[in-house]
Amino acid sequence: MHNYILQIAQENDFQSTRLLKILHAIQKRYFYIPDNAIEVLAEQLQLPRTHIQNVVAFYSFFHTQSSGKYTILISDSITDLMLGKSDLMSYFEQKLKVDIGSVRADGLVSLNNTSCTGMCDQGPAGLVNGYALTHLTKPRIDQIVNYVNRETPLAQWDSDLFRVDDNIVKPDLLLNEKPLHGHAITSTLTRGLSETLAEIELSGLRGRGGAGYTTAWKWKFCREENATQRYIICNADEGEPGTFKDRVLLNSYADSVFEGMTVAAAIVGATQGFLYLRGEYVHLLDKLEAVLEARRVSNLLGSNILQNGFDFDIEICLGAGAYICGEESALIESLEGKAGIPRNRPPYPVTQGYLGKPTVVNNVETYVAAANIAVHGGAWFADKGTSKSKGTKILSISGDCKARGIYEYAFGTTVKTILADCGAIDVLGVQVGGPSGVFISNDEFERKIAFEDLATGGSFIIFNHTRSILDVVHNFSHFFAHESCGFCTPCRVGTSLLKKQVDKIVEGHGSAGDIVALEELCQVIKNYSHCGLGQTAANPVLSSLERYPEIYQAMLKKISYEPGFDLDKSLETARRMANRDDAAAHLAQVEN
Amino acid sequence: MTSKKVKVATVSLAGCFGCHMSFLDLDERLVDLVEHVQFDRSPLTDIEHCSDDCDIGLIEGGVCNSENVHVLREFRKNCKILVAVGACAINGGLPAMRNHISLEDCLNEAYMDGIGIENPQIPNDIELPLLLDKVYPLHEVVKIDYFLPGCPPSADVFWAFLTDLLAGREPELPYELIHFD
């Protein structure tokens, strides 16, 4: 093992920033990160051992104990649950003969839940050794169980299990454009860098990750910083449950993504770029590397690009199962080989980003838009949309509708129009922007997709009247408790308390005071958390409490208080061990 | 302050009596306090059960066994205002460190497999209260009206809280009393 670790460290130039890459390699070989690998790495990378242990512990996809030759994770996104995930999970458990969250006795296989894998239009979905499984059904599970029990290498599994479709249903401005092979770069260089930046400003393009900061300003600030080195980062850590449009863009428009990054690099004066790809999308890695290689061969990347004297190259870094890394400063920390804990802002990445240097971080879709604007000019883009939200937005539509998939709409389109287009009937409400966004009821379908109304990173989950709001809230509060990075107390403790309090009400142990306690807790989490995760973690509860107070009220008992757990059951172990069953060995749930 | 004395009951559940000791640190202020307060069930009086018209119940310690549940319920039933006093009452505190270990392992270690155990057996006399699977904070078992943080809360915390209540004010603890570093 020592030699292998040494070799991996050497391949990565002993760079501590490559820690995630190195850990991925080690885990691929040993199925976990052994203690002595950490020892050797600490020595080779000249890092404290505790630093590496911290990183391994932080990311969901790294394990310190073997999770088996086959690690199977099933997506616990609400969209997968709506497609029948729970039944399939029990079936899986029973067929594989392994409990959820554990490794089978023979050490061959483990089964667990994971956060949304970005396959909401083709779920129930999962991952085996990181590779996406789609359209799970009982027959497909039988097939998987057979492969596992026969120890068939993944490469020999039926490729249909791993089939990932784009499902582009309604293309518009951007999706109708062909992938760019240098056109945006030549346009930029011909027009001039400042002139192209002016076109991007004219286009009114705002960040597509959800926050909506004006792209041209970001690039301008980065360009104006006094520095010798600058970086371009593409945020492809698409972790918001219900979002999958970046996966499609990377699958079918990767050239445009890289072209947008190259244009940005030319404008701000960067020579190095990174694509931070979420671990769940590892199935795209080889393809993306091949696209990069082809672009190098065509001189669209590398040194002296298109003989115009500027150098730029892109490296792909793979995440390891941490929603928080979608937050730009956490993403930068992760790129630097650390746990993804959000930084204090300011300073913003445009002044102090990767390795403390000025850095532009934009979403996948933003780069695609920017590249096309560089070709067609700002007016082409600004023609569509509203006065405050120019252009189009690509939505990932999932949940209760006929045609799930990718839809591109001019900003200002109403929810009603979208619901009609995708064939959604009998709609109870829509979760716009994922769990951190907002749940809108069927009274609000005249509202518009736009930064000034319903701002969204692209997640659009539809619920019909057979669904329960409380199930949705329950799922989302568990999601946030799992994904809290643990840095600040209001979020770390708050999201766990919130999960517990929601469970108490959903499981029918709630009484009058519990809703008040729930609201107070939400305010603490929202107002005192360090970053966007905590600040939005209470949104599912707050937005549903505001719209459907009666649903919560109906769950409450007519007594003043009841414990949130089964009191009598909590005596069970003691009863069994003391061999008692007398009256004093029992407790009533509520005092008579 | 009213002429009729306010009835206060106190108890320690899964606690160490440290909060009660801190309460006694009121020292000479106790003399002022008993002008307005009459102690009901409490280790200070040795009264065994709460009378049904207690005003304030001060509870130290978390809930670790069935007896704790019964006592806590008696307090809830008989006290108008119930107060969780100190870290263990609020969070489970030190006794809750066993929550990371299964009760089965705890009992086996203490009574069956531990070093130096003679005649190993799990105590099973019906007089003994059974342990809960975990140590719970008070507010997860009954409704709690106020929380006094600290390990233990200082005498000044008790004083500020009780004088506020006796004066009919909404109790408020100034920052100096509840920051601990």
Q: If helices are DSSP runs of H or I spanning 4 or more residues, what is the number of helices of chain B?
A: 7
* Largest sheet report of chain A: 6 strands, mixed
* Gross morphology of chain A: globular
Major sheet strand order of chain A:
6-12-11-15-13-14
Strand order of the largest sheet of chain B: 2-1-3-5-7
Looking at CATH, which topology of chain B would you report?
Answer: Rossmann fold
Rg of Cα set of chain A? 25 Å
Radius of gyration of chain B: 18 Å
Order of helices and strands of chain B: EHHEEEHEHHEEHH
Measured distance between first and last alpha carbons of chain B: 35 Å
Q: What name goes with the CATH superfamily of the largest domain in chain A? A: NADH-ubiquinone oxidoreductase 51kDa subunit
Relative strand content of chain B: 15-25%
Oligomer: heterodimer
Low-pLDDT segments, ≥5 res of chain B = none
Number of domains of chain A: 6
Helix content of chain A: 40-55%
CATH fold type of the largest domain in chain A: Rossmann fold
The second-level CATH architecture of the largest domain in chain A is 3-Layer(aba) Sandwich
Please provide a written account of the structure.
The complex is a heterodimer of chains A (592) and B (181). Chain A is α/β, with parallel strands linked by helices. In chain A, 42% of the residues lie in helices and 13% in strands. In chain A, helix 1 packs across helix 3, helix 6 packs parallel to helix 7 and helix 22 crosses helix 23. The model of chain A has no long low-confidence stretch (mean pLDDT 95). With 181 residues, chain B is α/β, with parallel strands linked by helices. Chain B has a single domain, classed as NADH:ubiquinone oxidoreductase-like, 20kDa subunit (Rossmann fold). A 5-stranded parallel beta sheet of chain B has the order 2-1-3-5-7, sandwiched between helices. The longest helix of chain B has 13 residues. Classes of the chains: A alpha/beta (592), B alpha/beta (181). At the A-B interface, helix 24 of A face helix 3, helix 5 and strand 6 of B.
